[in-house]
Specification:
heme; transmembrane; membrane; Tetrahaem_cytochrome; 3 domains; mainly alpha; transmembrane helix; 9 helices; 255 residues
């Protein structure tokens, strides 16, 4: 009893040493495994941080640009729309870590904050806009917000597409499905056009923002053609509405 499998007392120290060696060997193997894992994490973290710093640098913006600038924005610099988030990189990362740990109220952008309506309206806000984005935050436009996002400038003018308008032409039904015009002056009534589902014809007569100096036609046959509108939205031709505007876009200068 207690003298090993062979029953020879002289074998006991040898067996103990073998057990100790095996334990040390396993412990050493586990330590090396943990070291490798931490080394991989550290290398990945350093590499990720390096990539973030490089991609956030203005000189390397071309590496991650989403696509060509929209019509009219060709001369803008990235920084004209993409503004730096408050704080330095370390502070931004710390704020996000605190948020993930439940110690912060909101996450923050890393490097540059997201572009929003205020960035667009700095250049494009004008009085008497027929469809200002602010209007669509009203409760009655809930369905419209869900379907076509008219409360955001990028709902119709998604940037980095190389176009003027990106939303298409058949979205007017979201708000005007039951349109009725008293003493309708058009050769084909608005009610009939809506009943026929001819929603692309709305923009053939009406300038969405009302910024072009134009007369709205009453003869449906003289409307702007759908092909012309598509080419205009794609940036292939100048405005078929009118050459003159009530308000020009403001030059981008920081206040």
């Amino acid at each position: 009893m207690g003298t090993g499998e062979s029953g020879d007392p002289s074998r006991l120290p040898t067996e103990i040493n073998e057990i100790r060696f095996d334990v040390k060997k396993k412990s050493s193997r586990k330590a090396r495994t943990r070291y490798r894992i931490w080394a991989y994490y550290m290398a990945g973290g350093v590499l990720s941080l390096f990539c973030i710093v490089v991609l956030l640098h203005p000189d390397y913006a071309y590496l991650h640009v989403s696509g060509p600038m929209n019509i009219g924005h060709e001369e803008l610099a990235c920084e004209d729309c993409h503004k730096s988030e408050r704080g330095n990189l370390r502070q931004q990362l710390q704020a996000n870590v605190r948020y993930l740990l439940g110690r912060g109220t909101n996450p923050v952008a890393v490097g540059y904050r997201a572009v929003n309506n205020y960035d667009c309206l700095y250049c494009h806000e004008r009085p008497n806009d027929r469809h200002p984005v602010s209007r669509f935050f009203a409760p009655r436009f809930r369905e419209a917000r869900e379907r076509i996002r008219p409360q955001y400038c990028v709902g119709c003018h998604s940037e980095h597409n190389g176009k003027r308008v990106t939303s298409g032409m058949s979205y007017c039904d979201v708000c005007h499905e039951k349109i009725e015009v008293e003493n309708d002056p058009v050769s084909i009534s608005h009610r009939q056009l809506a009943r026929d589902g001819n929603w692309a014809s709305c923009l053939a007569c009406h300038d969405y923002h009302g910024n072009h100096k134009m007369e709205v036609t009453r003869d449906f046959d003289t409307r702007i053609t759908e092909q012309e509108l598509r080419r205009y939205f794609a940036g292939e031709i100048d405005s078929p509405y009118a050459t003159q505007k009530f308000h020009k876009a403001r030059a981008r200068v920081e206040p």
